[in-house]
Amino acid sequence: MSRIGRLPISVPDAVQVQIQGQHVTVKGPKGTLSLAAHAAVQVQMEDRRIVCRRSSDEKFHKALHGLTRSLIRNMVDGVVKGFERRLELVGVGYRASLLGAKNLNLALGYSHPIVYPIPEGIKIEVKDQTQVLVSGIDKQLVGAVAAKIRSFRPPEPYKGKGVKYAEERIRRKAGKTGAK
Question: Do 88 and 76 belong together in one domain?
């Protein structure tokens, strides 16, 4: 069996789980998430624990087994605690601000500001002009939004300027040496 897939997921008291066929819905204090599981993986509730079982030992089914379990685990964690990614803007004149509650305004050294519409289910906070916090209950969406914001100006290896994750370390390169 899959080492990850065979582990049961314990469900906290504040969370309600509904399983109807292959459709799993998780409802908690922060919101509701749902997942349509693949037909090769059966999801069942047993004593406040969610158990995933696969139909065969095919390589593809083994991969789906662990994936489904991880996705359901992330849903349970998301509706209880939520997820967040921190971004830092490094560079002279690089700054972020919120335009209302629906748009993120980024000045990243281009000739124009970048206005990013905030997707539904995501909350973005600008701590100061160079610190952006992306949070929400869907881990996949939080990561995708943070990656999209980072993609507007990824950090470059010479001066380290750009948008980077707070925990990211930029591998620096030596610049050109002057000829004598």
Answer: no
